[in-house]
Amino acid sequence: MGGDVTNTQQPKKFKSLGIRMVSGFVLLLICGLPIYFGGWLMTMLVATFGFIMIREWGRMTESGNLPVLATSLPIIGLLSALGLGTYGHWEWALLAIAVCSIIGFLERTRRGGAHWAGFGAIYIILPCLAFIWLRADGGLDGGAIGFQAPGFAKLVFIIVIVIAADSFAYLGGSTFKGPKFAPKISPNKTWSGFFSGVIGGGLIGMLAAKIIGFDPMLGLKIAIPIVVASVFGDLLESALKRKLNVKDAGDLLPGHGGLLDRLDSLMLAVIVASCALILWPGMWPV
Q: Residues 91-109: what's their mean pLDDT?
């Protein structure tokens, strides 16, 4: 009997890992050219993803049909922030997010749950702006593209670290199991998975640094905070879904959630990385 259970669990474990890897690979294929070229192509990609996540957030936090105003306000805020950011007006872009959050809060006050509208604008649009900011030194308008652009290397480094940490955490947690990491928020996460993700993400960070052309030990130092941020980004969305009593943010991948479920780790990681680069601009050596 025990052997039968193991045989049924193992294929299921690796099937789930395969779906995670395939979905990550598909996202990389979709994002590859926009990240490579930057500029307005990158802005259009992020705007598309932001639009989908706003719709998912609306379905999570609104009961019944989504009011037109409740959907259009954050979309206007998203497009305004990304457009201003693409032209380099970062302070105005942040102001657009703040205004969108306040107006969304006020609009929702009469229907209840105003805090979800106010928080949702920041939760979704701020990471979208961080993506644009990290890649801002490339573009289709004559700026550096691909490996010639530091922004390309920064963004790819972060994405690769987050994907590696998630994959290693899943493998380590599924293999070693043990004590739960945050049982009240995400019952499937274990300490073994957390440390596997940190170790795996750190090793990939060293390898990526070597490929990019700087000290692997510095790559490790940069990778660890990114991994930790990605873990807490995942936990944050799990806590929000638990609070809202929803299983998945959407059905983009039937049975495996929506875009918010796929990008939750990366969203907080890019914000933390952006804040670190603003505070310590010399931390990225290339």
A: 94
Longest dimension (CA), the chain: 65
* 23-60 tens-digit pLDDT: 666 767 788 888 888 888 899 999 999 999 999 998 88
Q: Which two tokens stand for residue 54?
A: 């706003």
Dist. CA 1–CA 3, nearest whole Å: 5
**Residue that the structure tokens 């996540």 belong to:** 53
Bridge partners of residue 186, in order along the sequence: 182
Q: In the prediction, which pLDDT does 1 show?
A: 38
Classify each residue of 244-273 as buried b or exposed e, where b means 16 or more C-beta atoms within 10 Å of its C-beta. eeeebbbebbeeebbbbbbbbbbbbbbbbb
CA 21, CA 220: separation in Å to the nearest integer?
23
pTM, two decimals, is 0.86
